[in-house]
Amino acid sequence: MKKLLLRVEEAAEAIACSRSKTYQLLADGSLPSVRVGRSIRVPVAALESWINERAAVAQDGSGPEEEAGGSRLYSP
Predict the structure, then answer these.
(1) Beta-carbon neighbour count of residue 71 at 10 Å?
(2) Can you tell me whether residue 19 is helix, strand or coil?
(3) Which domains does the chain have, with CATH numbers?
(4) Residues whose CB falls within 8 Å of the CB of residue 5, separated by 6 or more in sequence, listed in order
(5) Is residue 47 a contact partner of residue 14, using CB atoms and an 8 Å limit?
(6) Which of 60, 46, 61, 51 is nearest to 17 (CA)?
(7) Using one digit for the tens of pLDDT, what is the confidence trace for 45-74?
(8) Which of 3, 6, 53, 60 has the maximum number of C-beta atoms within 10 A of its C-beta?
């Protein structure tokens, strides 16, 4: 059975970011997550959508995009 939720460490590996950067993305609301008890999980479908949105911006060539919370993401 395919996993529907990833631990933060698994999500970090999937997006090729450090664990601390992934926690930062979760804290500022840039990366979607759900709570299961005291644990934070990242839905696989939401992560795929999050990646596709950023890939579209990168292909669009529109440069840095404003994100919620005032952080800028840049995809070369």
Answers:
(1) 13
(2) helix
(3) 5-60 (1.10.10)
(4) 34, 36, 41, 42, 43, 44
(5) yes
(6) 51
(7) 999 999 999 888 888 776 555 444 444 444
(8) 6
Please report which residue ranges of 15-76 form alpha helices under DSSP H: 19-27, 44-60
**CA-CA-CA-CA torsion for 30, 34, 40, 41, nearest 10 degrees?**
-90
Please report the pLDDT score of residue 63 as a whole number.
Answer: 56
Report which residue type is found at 32. Answer: P
Q: How many CA atoms, within 13 angstroms, populate the side-chain half-sphere of residue 29?
A: 6
- The pLDDT assigned to 71 comes to 47
3-state secondary structure of 39: strand
Q: What is the pTM of this model?
A: 0.72
Distance CA(20)–CA(1), nearest Å, equals: 28
